[in-house]
Each structure stands twice: as structure tokens, then as C-alpha cells.
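Internal QA ticket QA-208
Title: Verify multi-chain structure generation after dependency bump
Assignee: T.L.

Test input:
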Amino acid sequence: MKRIFSDFMRALNNNSFVFTSEIEPKKTVNVEGIVNIAKKLKNYVIACNITDNPRAHAYMNSIIASYIIQKEAGMETICHMTVRDRNRLALISDILGAYVLGIRNILAITGDHTTMGDNPSALPVYDLDSTQFIKMVRRMIDEGVDLAGNKINGEIKMHIGAVGNPNANPLEPEIYKVRRKIMAGAEFIQTQIVFDLDKAKRFIEEINAPPPYVLIGIFPCNSYKMADFIDKKIPGISVPAEYKEELRRAEGFKDKINEVNIEYFSEMIKELRKTTRASGVHIMTIKYEDIVCKIIENVKSIMN
Amino acid sequence: MIITKQKPNLLKYVENYDRIFIIGCGECATVCKTGGEEQVEALSKILGDRVIGKIVIESPCNVKFLKKDLKPSLYEGAKAILALCCGIGAQTIAEFTNKEIIAGLDTLFMGEVGMKGKFYEKCRACGLCILYETGGICPISRCAKKLLNGPCGGMVDEKCEVSNYSKDCAWVLIYKRLKKLGRESELEKIREARDWSTISQPGEITLGD
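Actual output:
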């Protein structure tokens, strides 16, 4: 009998098709912004990922931001934790603290290298890698001990997930790695953004291990410019020409851009649901969270 | 081999000294063309009559060679010794001579000497070699994140994000090599969290222990 500690895991376990989104705390002491986004998304997604120093930029702590969002917006969070910025001592104490603050879902992340970030002289840690981190959290939850076997006073009840990259080329070493993360105890996988349905399908098929829940990452672009930027400047991610072309034709008209996204991603989600064993989608945006609600609303109306 | 590079602003470090003794290295720094006869001679020319003497020691990181070749009469009058060798050599000289030492080189890494003046980092002296498990490719020194269960999401088309995608991803190399050797099963294993206490500083051992 699977132990369930969060609404997110309960929905996955009930075989619901699940929607999650993502909020990025910034280099700020103001929390109104992230709380307002969370309030907006709350009625549409089951939980929201809260990023941890993404792209190696030093931002507000993801555990604290997760806590605030859960408290102020009533939205469940999936708190990101990278192994880049802390050794196993700090990871253990952050897991203990996160649990006490009510966080029930953790996403283990390696983290972009420090040299890519906004404090590029920082010492990268990587004491553990993400697989080892997952295994450690698994033992903290299941056996009540830390990495060295020291006993934890009290029970930790949370879920641990991992990321995967369907765009990886070559894909095979990435698949081996994702399978190892699953073996280590990851209960769900959220993927890097994918525009291409076939890539998502292939990724899900190849994992082919005792199935954890897979949520495919998607990214509606709020302009042709952004789609073109991702296509040309973000390594490893290609944006289909027909989607770009539709955005180009809609450029300058907000409603039309929305329509293009609603249509393109609703179709993709429908296909994912119909033809794969994906458990849901993880919708990421930049300054375009309204579209998350619109796509989900549309998908729900055509699916039910 | 210990790979070194001349300090970019080396002359700034020596500008306050008028009696300088230069020591080069006959091994690694000679191969790196940072502290061989040629480089010692070139710097000596630049510094002109501020140089009271110079020598290339076969291996300045080895006290035995310092004892044999670095006679006090050579450097006694020097205000400072300019060491054109790695940080190990510079410290060994400093302790041996008790003189002010100016390290003229930055020590970069332990590396392979490739062809055409190329040097490649290959080892981090981590004290727990796992080369047997990884097809002879070291993830501790060749993966930017020292991952034992790679590749990470920063791999694109076999290249690493850290080098702006110019260097190979070590985990793709490991994957390919293991596959070639028919040892894919290594890729199915989780490599456990390692013991970093093996690199607790400072390392010290005694021959025979």
C-alpha cells in the first residue's frame, strides 16, 4: 500500500491526469508577486513547483518561498532542491526543515553549473549528485535515518521526484540515468520542456521501468520572438516550425497568440493522454501564467 | 604531469625586489614551457641586472634534488626567489631556502600531455579511484560537476554546458566506452555517495606505511 503524503501524490495515485506549473522566486524580499501568481494558478493546477536558484542565479530560498506560497495562497508546492549549493549536511537539515514547514513534495535537481549563473565565481558543491540525493531522502523517509545511518527523531512524510530530459542527445545515457533515479526511489519525474510530441513519447517508452509518474514539461511562448529565441539560443531544444509560424502570424495580437497556444498545447496534451502513459503535464511560462489557466480550462472542457 | 601557466601579471609581483634568484623546473614546467631553461633565460633578460643568479633544478618539488643542486652560496644574497615551477615546487623551495618566494606560475591541474601543446586534466587526486568502473574515464576530474551518476541536464549533443558546449561530456564518453567494452551493466548501477574525507587536507603519507 503506497503511503500518500500530498495532494499531488494522491492525484497521481488516483490516475488523474495532473497539471502542475512553476513559480520562480527572484532576487527580492517581496513575496507578493509569487503569492499572487500562486493564487491565480491555484484553481487550475494541483501543485506548483518552486525553483531553487535556477540557472545558478542566487534568488530567494525555495523552501521559504514554498512555505509562504502554501501558507498565503493555499497552493501545494513541489519544492526544488539542487545539490549544487549545499553538501549532504545542508541537504539533510533542509529536508528536516522543509518537512516541518509543511512541504510534502521535493524535486531533486543537479543544478546548472555555478559558472552559468550570476555569481560565477562561486564554488560548486555537488557533494552528492541528484541520484544519491534521492536515495538519501528515500532512506530518511522510509527508514528514518540520514545518509550515514544516524537516526532521525520523528517521521518524515514527503515525496521525492526527479527530472528527466527527453531532448537529450544521445538519449540512451539520459535514459540509463533516469532509470537509476527511479531505482534510487524517485516517485515522479518532471521533464525539461518539450515541444515535440514524438520526443515525449519516446522518452516515456524508453524509461520503461517500474513506472513512476511522468509529467511532460511544456512551455507556451508569449511571442514569436520568444519561440525563436528558444529554438535558436537554448541548446538542445528545438521549436517546431509550424508552431513558430503560427505565432509569427499572430504576433502583436495577444488574443491570437493565446489562441495559438491553447490550440497547439491542448492538442499535444490530448495526444499525450491518449497515446502515452504520461501522468500529466508540467506547464512552465515566463510572465505568461494566464495561459496556464486557459490551456487547462480548454483541455478539461474537451476531455470531459 | 603538473600543468602550469605563467602568471599574467608576473612582473608586478617582482617589481619591489632588486636582488632576485630564479629557479626553474626540469620536469613538468619544462614540458609546459613555463619554467624550463628557455623561460628562465627569457625572464632573466627582462629583469636584467636585478637577477643575481638562476638555475633549473631537475625536480624542485623533491628535497633530495634541492639538497644536491641548490647550494646556499647560489641564492644567499637574494632578496627573493622567483620560482618558475608548480606550487609544490615553490613551497618546497621556500621551506628549503627560508627566502621570500615569488611563485611565477599558476598551477592549473594534473594532466595528460597531448599532442600539439595540448594538456588535458585527467585526475583530481581524490584518493578513491573508480576508473575500473567507468571505462577508464574519470568523472571526478572530467565532469564539471564531479557526478557519479551522470550525465546531467547540461549535456547537449555530447557536449558540456560549462565549456559553452565545446568540451565533451565525460558521462557520454563513459557511456560510449562502457558500451564498446560490453559493460553496459555498469550503467545500470547506482554509484553510491562517495567518501570525500579521502581528500581531507593536508595529505601526508610515509613510505612503507
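Spot checks passed. Chain B has two domains: 2-108, 126-190.
Status: verified.
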